[in-house]
Amino acid sequence: MDKKVDKIMAQGLEFKACHGVLAAEKESPQSFLVDLDLFLDLKAAAEQDDLALTIDYDKAFHLVKNIVEKQSYNLLETLAEKIARALLDSFAALQAVEVQVSKPDAPVKGNFNYFAVKIRREK
Asked: Where is the Dihydroneopterin aldolase/epimerase domain (predicted)?
């Protein structure tokens, strides 16, 4: 990937869903946070002021929402992979993505902000 590539960031996308290994996690929706770093060349979009040459935020948000809320996975790793693949497949200009999925209410006894998985995938 070119070092001069630009980045769009979407942080704190919040969803309620049932992901996890435990039966209780599969039955009761929990909070999940998704952070995205979308890597692409933004020069043409900026110069032409044209949404078609960049990433439509609304489309990206609803793509992620559909994946998080409509399916159930055991692992955050699987959820992050599904999101990354869908984004890369849906947006032609996208060169790479970083996806972080955080679970603030993970079933762990102790004090913590969240547990998270972060992956990077390229075309």
From this structure: 8-121
* From 43, 103, 118, 123, active-site residue: 103
Residue 29 C-alpha from the chain's centroid:
18
In terms of Cβ atoms closer than 10 Å to its own Cβ (0-12, 13-18, 19+), residue 3 is exposed
Clarify whether 103 is annotated catalytic: yes
Span 20-72, pLDDT tens digits: 999 999 999 999 999 999 999 999 999 999 999 999 999 999 999 999 999 99
Q: Rounded CA gap, 6 and 39, in Å? A: 6
* SS3 of the chain: helix, strand, coil, percent, to 5: 35, 30, 35
Is residue 83 within 8 A of residue 101, CB to CB? The reply is: yes
User: Exposed (0-12), middle (13-18) or buried (19+): which is 117, by Cβ within 10 Å?
Assistant: middle
Q: Which domains does the chain have, with CATH numbers?
A: 6-122 (3.30.1130.10)
3-state secondary structure of 47: helix
